[in-house]
Amino acid sequence: MANKTDKTRYTDDELKEFQALIEGKLNHAKEQFVFYKNQLKEISEGEEAKLKGLDDGISTTENERISTLAGRTKKHIQHLENALLRIQNKVYGICRETGKLISKERLKAVPHATLSIEAKQKR
Question: Residue 49 falls within a domain, yes or no?
Answer without folding.
Answer: yes
